[in-house]
Amino acid sequence: MKKLALVIWLALVLPTKVGAQEYEVTSFSSRIEILRNTDLRITETIEANFNIPKHGIFRYIPSKYKVEGKTWDTHLRVERVNERYTLTHEGNNVVIKIGDPNVTSTGPKTYEITYVVENMVLDFSNHDEVYWNVTGADWDTTIDKASVQVVTPWAKIIKSDCFAGVSGTSDRSCRTVGDSWTAGGLGEGKEMTIVVGLDKENLLEWPGWWDRNWREIGKYLLSLAPALIMGSIWYVRGRDLKYIGSNVYVKQEAAIVRKTGVGEREHLPLVYSPIAGLTPAEVGTIIDQRVDLADVTAEILELARLGYVKIKKVDKDYLFERTDKNDEALKDFQKSLLTNITDSVRFAPDVGSTSRQTSLAKMKQKFSKSLDEFKDKLYEHLASARIFDGRPDNIRRIVVGIGAFAGWMTIGIFGAVVLAQGPWGVVLLVSSAIAGVFAYQLPRRTAWGHSLYRQTVGLKYFLGKGKWRYEVAEKYLFLEEVFPLAVSLGVVSKLVSDMKGLGLAAPEYVGGFGGNIGSFHSQISSTLPSVKSGGSGGWSGGSGFSGGSSGGGGGGGGGGSW
Questions:
Q1: How far is 119 from 39, CA to CA, in rounded Å?
Q2: What pTM does this model have?
Q3: In the CATH hierarchy, which fold is given to the domain comprising 23-206+549-561?
Q4: Domain boundaries, the chain
Q5: Measured between alpha carbons, how far is 69 from 155 in angstroms, rounded to an integer?
Q6: pLDDT tens string 132-183
Q7: How far apart are CA 197 and CA 274, in angstroms?
Q8: Rounded to an integer, what distance in angstroms lies between the CA atom of residue 532 and that of residue 378?
Q9: Which of 337, 361, 366, 408 is 20–30 Å from 213 (CA)?
């Protein structure tokens, strides 16, 4: 009666267990060929049986191992797969996904993978060694039978060992036949590992330092490509020119020039007055090579100083009124800015005011569309005046494109995932940041532009220091002229503080809000738009003959179906 009950139980349970598995690996056969250069050519024949329709299988193999506390990155190269496949990197693993996404199969299916792993023979004092995890433990099914054969014409196998069982154990459930080993019943968490010792009188040719490391060096160099390319462009085409001679602050038509030296420290000129008729926006762009909102704010104040616009603070807003003064004396970018203010007045006049007056808040809708025109005309003026060797915005756009292409090529060669692993991704990020710094500096100034730049640096420095103004306090008109320049150079707060210390009121053209110029600039900045500008191997690197176990050595990983 008990036997009948057992038979009935087996009949009910066993089909359920089998049916619960979507597939199983009926055979996993590996052939390891030790090449003369210490690489391993491995051919895996995997026989699967699909109980439900499947596209195929995937096999993943670790490519990074921790050896004596350091990361050892091996190179795995797939030579052949008998079915359609894709190759990707996930974490520390190389993933070979085999099958056609448009085709499914049921029943038995055989897959064959051949790949080469570099520099996998270990060098010990009394033998050389191959220590390889044949199957890996991370499979989502059982492996009914596993076998491995190790062959080489370049050395003699003088000893061997085989482990099959739960990862980390020294269970030697293998059967040895000549140069082959077999194991059966590798269920969940179990794997097969082989270790073979080779004689020291072998004919193996060990790779030199360069052969072992050239690929790593190449990755570092390619990661450095953005910085190297951009740095080279800057060195050749991005360094400012400068006059050779004693009086370098006078414009010279036929002068001898040279490039500025890398890290060259130049004399700081004593400048505390407007420079060569430059407007605040020109000064601000010359010093940092770009047009920003501080330059717009400063140029609006300059138009007020020159009498083209009146500005008045009312509560938390600012009123602008266009005067009747003719604008023929203005430069094109100044005319553009003035015209846009005038158009804004016509577009959004205050209720109860004349049609020549509007507020900053109501200027936004119309005026914001015209900032690009102001920027364009200012860049064009600086290029045509031969202050810059071309338009800074166009040059920057070109070089940023070159840098982006260099980065794209780097990622295209190695892949974003590969570069995200280990140090190469960090090097690429640092390299890209350095390239950005070079790109920022690339719009080259002409010799005259560099002369103006040095004077601008001097003006900013001495405006920031401020102490000299006690000696020229009587030059009130000069302070009126320099006020917008201080805005574009970012030192207006210091200037306002010094003016208070000298008992000087803010210039009349700022409408009485000179002591709070920061609020005016802040409101312009907020009202107007800105000027655009995985798993791993468990091997520690030791010998498989001393404390070897299932899961030790290179290789391993696992697989699954899809």
A1: 5
A2: 0.60
A3: Immunoglobulin-like (2.60.40)
A4: 23-206+549-561
A5: 30
A6: 999 988 888 999 999 999 999 999 999 989 988 888 778 888 888 878 899 9
A7: 83
A8: 14
A9: 408
